[in-house]
Amino acid sequence: MCFCSVYSVCPVVSFLVPMNDKHHYQKKFERIAEQTLFPLLDPGTQSFVREQAGRYRFTLQELRQITEFANDLKMWGGKQIEQLWPSIKRNSHQEIQDVRQQKKLLMKHIGQKWQQQRQQPNRYHARKEQRQLPLKVEVSVAKKEQLGLGFCPVASPKTRCCNLLTLDAVDNCGYGCSYCSIQSFFTGNEVTFDSHFGEKLKQIPIDPERIYHIGTGQSSDSLMWGNSNGVLDAILEFAGNHPNVILELKTKSANISHLLKSELPPNLICSWSLNPQTIIDNEEHGSASLQKRLDAARQLAAKGSVVGFHF
């Protein structure tokens, strides 16, 4: 393996670093690692990244990039970062002057290998269906300063937008979908309910002459929590009081028991994000199976509710 026409693979060169400098960087590493995906890596990969960081003195941005590469490679199921990591030696055609130059070449090489893996088609091992349990979460209730209601993040005067308003009914999600942007909104496994959510909904100024489209699926799955802390009751009451509001509950769950026993306003839409079962098994960890999602939609449709699907 080589990553440049003038460099070849060999055992990694060791560098002598003063002990006090090593100790200083070790403390720095532990501090900056918490700001990256390092805690999510396997123990073996953590040890490898920590060793390389001690050698090359990664900055926060470099460590963030390395850990993102490592996490992606793990999810993609191909060669891991330890296997793609190159070793370099001094070559007669060009001198490697210092560690910084080596680090620059290493980062370039790993980035190229990551990009090559990224462009490969998805690989899933053939196996029987094996549903994974939801991630472990810590649920808490707190009074939020304000209600999380705003325009969809991609809305702008330059886009053809549906003018969706997003309502943060719950902060953070218990599912582990590999591609989900919620994981970049919140850190850790703490899921938070607003103790005054229902009261805040009643205070939203709604113009009765205007049509609104409000969705609750941006900050958490809309149905996986059921009616925990009265969240669904508050949403149903709000929708019932404002018939000009199209209220959409987007989900990957099949937890519809509370909706089945409740009176549903006609302006409520329950919609499901759908993928082939292979994608659900490998990417949407902890979520309901495709068949359970379709069964849940069928039951609500039979009850007279409007249902929808996102592909």
Describe this entry's structure for a reader.
With 311 residues, the chain is of the alpha/beta class. It contains 11 helices and 11 strands. α9 links the parallel β8 and β9 (268-273). Mean pLDDT is 84; it is low at 1-17 and 90-96.
Class from helix and strand fractions: alpha/beta
Sequence of secondary-structure elements:
HHHHHEEEEEHEHEHEHEHEHE
How many helix segments? 11
Helix coverage percent: 25-40%
| Percentage of residues in DSSP E strands | 5-15%
Topology, number of strands: 11
Please outline the major beta sheet. Answer: 6 strands, mixed
First-residue to last-residue Cα separation: 40 Å
Write the layout of secondary structure elements.
Layout: H1 19-33, H2 43-56, H3 60-76, H4 81-84, H5 99-118, E1 138-142, E2 149-151, E3 165-167, E4 170-171, E5 176-177, H6 182-185, E6 190-194, H7 197-202, E7 212-215, H8 231-241, E8 245-251, H9 257-260, E9 268-273, H10 277-283, E10 284-285, H11 290-302, E11 306-310
Parallel strand pairs: 1-6, 3-7, 7-8, 8-9, 9-11
Antiparallel strand pairs: 2-3, 4-6, 5-10
Helix pairs in contact: 3-5
List descriptors.
11 helices; disordered N terminus; 311 residues; alpha/beta; three-stranded mixed beta sheet; 14% strand; 11 strands; single chain
The gist of it:
With 311 residues, the protein is α/β, with parallel strands linked by helices.
